[in-house]
Amino acid sequence: MSKGDCRNVLVVAITPRNEDQQVDLDGVRRNSRYLIQNGVNFIMPECGTGLVYDASLAEYEAVVGTFIDEVGDKSHVVPGIGPGFGRSLEMGSIAKDLGVDGVMIMPVVGPASATGVYNGLKAIAEKIKLPTILYQRRLDIMTVDDVIRLCQLDEIVGLKYAVDDIEAFKQISENAGDQAAMTCGMAEDPCIDYLENGAIGFSSGMANFVPRMSLSLLQNFMSGNKDEAERLRNLMIPFEDFRGENGAQYSSSALHSAMDYIGLSGGPVIPFATDVSNK
Fold first, then answer.
1. Which domains does the chain have, with CATH numbers?
2. Global pTM?
C-alpha cells in the first residue's frame, strides 16, 4: 500500500455479530462481497467502527483474516491496531502474519504526553514495518509539528485527520502532504472542506451500506463536479448527525441497524457500545 492508494474512500467496516454477540464470520464474507461488488477497494476492518477497542485478539485475527480471504486482491485490507502501545504491537504482528496491506494505529485513549505519543507511534511503525496510517484525534498529544515529523518516516503513508480544526490540518498538509496522504477522518459531513484543503480521500462508515454514494461523492469532487458532490453530501448528513448524537453512542450500532435493514449482516454490538432502540 502506498500514499496514492489513499486517494480513495476508506471504508471503515463494521464487525457483524450474531444474537449471542459472537462474531458473524459468514456475515463478514457477505458484507465483503457487497463492498467489492459496489466498487470498494479500500477496506479497514477492526477500527473504531468495527469496535476494535473491545475485541479480543482471537476475534481480531478471525475477522481480519476473513476479510483478507474473501476479498483477495480486489481490495486493500488495512485494519486498525490498538489502542495502546502493547496492543498495537500484538495486533500489528497478527495483521502482518495474515498478509494485510497496511495498518492504522488507533488513537491513544489512556494517560499520555506529546513526547510519549511521538516516541510510541514512531516505535510502533518502525517495529511493525508495514505501511502505516496515523489517526489523529487530539492536537494536545499529537501536535502539528510532531505529526509532520512522523510523516517523514518511511513506514508512514497516510494520516486520518479527525480534529475539528481545519487550520491545523492545512499546516500539516502543506508540510507533510508530499510525504503522506492526507485524508479526512470525519466521514462525509466535513469531507468537502478538507478535500478543498489538501485531503485526497476520506473515511466512511456509511459506505458499509451505501458505498456507491460515498464513492460517487469523491469521484464527482475530483472530477470538478462540486455541486453534485455537495448534493450527495447533504443527503448523507442526517444519518451522520444521528450517529453523532449523545456522545456518538450510536456511531457503530446505527450502521449495524442499517446493514440489517438492507438485508446484509449487522446484528448487535458488544459492550461498551449501545444498540439502537427498536423504538
1. 3-261 (3.20.20.70)
2. 0.97
